[in-house]
User: What shape does this take?
Amino acid sequence: MSLNAELRAFYEARYPQIPAEARKIMERAGQELADSGQAAGALSVGDRAPRFELPAATGRTVTLDGLLADGPVVLTFYRGAWCPYCNIALRALQSHHDEITARGARLVAVSPQVPDESLSLTEKHELAFDVLSDLGSDTAKQYRLAFDLPDDLAAVYDTFGFDLQRVNGGHPRTLPLPATYVIDRDGVIRWAFVDTDYTARAEPADILAALAAL
Assistant: This one.
């Protein structure tokens, strides 16, 4: 089963269980985000990847320049450990991690959550790649991926118990669009996936094909 087929199956099983009023708010917010054109305005193929220096779950600092010194980089942005779609996507990337590294690339994931949350996620899913904390979504902003949740959707997430105030270190409403980039050793984006739909993610097979094409 492809990653997006797995995500769709999860969505179809879970979504009907969400209260109708909450679904209405989620659908409206999702449509507004799609209509905003933000995905089209995000960095894409041919753009130079903005440099970053972010803390890993283990506490050490990871830089894009340091990663690129070893080869191309697969950079994926996700919303947080509270998002089940993100967890499915990260597990899929982990299952293809050996294939990614066999192509000489480094995989790294970035979210706005605090390092402790990233560490818990890394341990839970036994992730072999770095999970970085982008508090305040400053890096996501440079890639033009950051957006603010509308008030009513933020309230819905509160009722779900996500506690974004805590896990995002005091920046509860700013999240990144789901996005994955393949960046070559010169720091240029050679492949990109960006979508306003949080239930859709880059297929690992497409990432591997992009690496093979470098």
